[in-house]
Amino acid sequence: MIRKVLIANRGEIAIRIGHTLREMEIETVAVFTDPDEHSLHVPAADAACHIESYLDAREIVRAAKEYGADAIHPGYGFLSESPSLSEECEKAGIIFIGPRPDTIRSMGDKLESKRVMQAAGVPVVPTWDGNPPASAYPVLVKAVGGGGGKGMRLVEKAEDLAEAMASASREASKAFNDSRVFVEKYIRRPRHIEFQILGDSHGNHIHVFERECSIQRRHQKIIEETPSTAMTLKLREEMGAAAVAAAKAVDYRGAGTVEFILDPIGSFYFLEMNTRLQVEHPVTEMTTGLDLVREQVLIAEGQRLLYRQADLHPVGHSMECRIYAEVPEENFRPSTGTIEIFEAPAGPGVRLDSGVGKNSVVSYHFDPLLAKLIVWASSREAAIDRMKRALADFVLLGVRNNIEFLHRVISDPEFSSGKIDTGFLDRHPELFTVSTDVPVEALLVASLGGEKTVSGAHIPDVWTSGFWRNS
Q1: Residue 434 contacts residue 330 (beta carbons within 8 Å)
Q2: Domains defined for the chain, CATH in brackets
């Protein structure tokens, strides 16, 4: 029985995990670094411990022992997909709320994961260690140990491959401390569809249906929804079976995600397995009624899954928009400053998972994700209408953000009709055009001082400065 959990994360996901733990009457311990001293996840916990880095597994385990925690929840990003934290927990006799180290290690290696999936009969995209045949172009160069778009290059011609591999290798080494890259067949106009999986330590595995994640920038998702408009009953059955086969192939324990790409003719291929809770997990919770964090805790305690596959039936449609402190019209440049006004939307079927509020400081130290706005409705059309209203009601001033951009995306006729793929934003440059009208809110925030910068300081590119975020 788990009594106290150290949450080895920050921001909205640390707060969200804490909600479930308190419902389960489990005490919580937060960790924070210097820039996060006043962050909202710190007072939300029962206790808080200062650490030097969210990436130091040994320091985090020491903090857990010091505060008497018998389990650690990694959240997403940071050490959630590094075997080091799971291994340190095993050594210390602390429960890791997640998969075993060997599972994390094998699925974190893109080449090894594909080999395992091939052996399990799961369709995979063709890959090569070196030069692919001329007929295979275009191809993608990808990092063996990474994701999130880092260490990735699209190569249209064979003569460009060597430079692309060298460039991707340098970026991968910097981001993941692993310079290995490989070449993969590039699927034109694919959809990115993932399946939520659950597995216990008694050999039971199920899927909790799909999430459509095709609206992306910089190879990172910004809008997710379920169900997918591409899904038929037959395709869901086939992809769900493949996801469960993937889970069984590694005897998966905990909550995870099997990601696929779906080509325009309906063929799907294994992309990767994320051995953690996904950023977009709330849409699955909204349509199934499951609390995926609760499921993680029960599995970590050694309990059997409470559901069989036939017991699960999704209802309605759910959509999530990631609210970022960034400027889409300036190549998604991250924005910094202090939030002067924060008025969250409300109403039926609206959920906000947020790590910030009024007076929160948004710095360059971490990923610019501020919050996740999630809606549920009885149909996709109604969910889009509800999300439009919720975004219009969301007042967030003091740092530039992507709220209006998200509203433009979901208002696009092609999005409304479900005609989407991972290249959607590239095909719609008009979505990056800002209205020339100056809203009253903009005048107000200007009077408050506008966007703040760190005078004289070098601000690193948060998109390539580390492997702490890979979602």
Answers
A1: no
A2: 4-97 (3.40.50.20), 126-185 (3.30.1490.20), 191-447 (3.30.470.20)
